[in-house]
Amino acid sequence: MHTLITPLDWGLGHASRSLALARQLEAEGDRLSWAASGPAAEMLRRELPDQTIHPLPPYRVTYPTRSMVWNVARQAWHWQRTIRAEHRATAELVRRLEIDRIVSDSRFGCYHRGVRSVFVTHQLHPITGFGPATAIYQWQLRNFDEFWVPDHPGHDRLSGRLSSPSGYDNVRFIGPLSRLSEAPGEAAFDVLVLLSGPEPMRTRLEELIFPQLAGLPYSYRVVRGLPTPESAPASPHIDFADTPTLSRLLTAARYVVARPGYSTLMDLRALGKSAVLIPTPGQTEQEYLAQRAQLQGWAVAVKDQEKLDLTDALRRLEGR
Q: Are residues 293 and 163 both part of a single domain?
């Protein structure tokens, strides 16, 4: 089967878990093609240098305010145009590449009436705080034949109520997806800081964390989450870590500081790491996932990033 994989470009998480899914599909005998945009496309070009990454229109998502409703409302018109444009681009790729199946990781326009279209998501029931936005989200999913949830179906699943199959047909729990595995090679250190997500909030968190690192009573490394050439190996700050590098860093770290993006949480659970989780302001899904991880006992959730006390959060994590 010739499968087209299309990860969303809201940060790097969708591309990360799509790489893990791609390994499974290749093991089952699929031939794969890729289409992406923005940071996701840049990441895939670094991870898959021999693959052509076909272009899709970028969403260019930003989170300029703490209000999820306002952030969505001010960008909704552009997103609808993007969905229509990526649908046209997908149709052209299906025709030109002779695609048999589309696996869209959260790109609403990447479907085709003539081929099996799968939507990969952990959010069948998103938490938007605004009923019409939730209804529009679920209305967009009507075009897909099947839904793949990267989680286990049990009540203690990582995604919780976000992935409840209630109200949907053809939901398949495919298990958590992580491209990472234990990998020795780095000297042990205390804290790995993983920065990620849409701007300007990624940069804002960096601005809050960097001054606190100087006084931190722990050894640390930082991955800035920018798919650009890496910093010098001797630096504790790395712009981008590919799969082998990130596997080694996570294996060597005692604790992690990160956004609770779902792909990051799957990576942390795959390697059994405890974490300080700092939700992107206004991103209600991350707030829910951080609180759930804290209740499960393997994380400390920071409610307000502007009041972040990194030393205190790490000490609370150490005492769990």
A: no
The domain boundary, picked from 117, 149, 173, lies at 173
Q: Are residues 76 and 205 in the same domain?
A: no
* Residue 248 within a domain: yes
Number of domain units in the chain = 2
- Write out the residue range of the structural domain in which residue 236 sits: 189-318
Query: Residue 31 and residue 120: Cα distance in Å, rounded?
Result: 18
Tokens standing for residue 225: 């989450």
Query: Residue 65 domain-assigned?
Result: yes
173, 203, 226: which is the final residue of a domain? Answer: 173
Give Cα separations from 204 to 19, 70, 198, 312 (angstroms): 28, 19, 10, 20
Report the CATH number that the domain containing residue 311 is assigned in CATH: 3.40.50.2000
Instruction: From first to last of the 320 residues of the chain, give the pLDDT tens digit.
Output: 999 999 999 889 999 999 999 999 999 999 999 999 999 999 999 999 999 999 999 987 776 666 665 666 666 668 789 999 999 999 999 999 999 999 999 999 999 999 999 999 999 999 877 677 788 888 889 999 999 999 999 999 999 999 999 999 899 999 999 999 999 999 999 999 999 888 888 999 999 999 999 889 999 999 999 886 545 445 688 999 999 999 999 999 999 999 999 999 999 999 999 999 999 988 889 999 999 999 999 999 999 999 999 999 999 999 87
Q: CA–CA separation, 21 vs 28, rounded Å? A: 11
Q: 268 CB contacts (<8 Å, ≥6 apart)?
A: 250, 256, 258, 275, 298
Indicate if 204 and 271 belong to the same structural domain: yes
DSSP classification of residue 284: H
Sequential DSSP letters for 107-166: -TT---TTSEEEEE-S-SS---S-HHHHHHHHHHGGG-SEEEESS-SSTT-TTGGGG--T
Same domain, 100 and 226: no
Strands 274-277 and 299-301: parallel
What's this model's pTM, rounded to 2 decimal places? 0.91
Cα end-to-end span (Å), the chain: 47
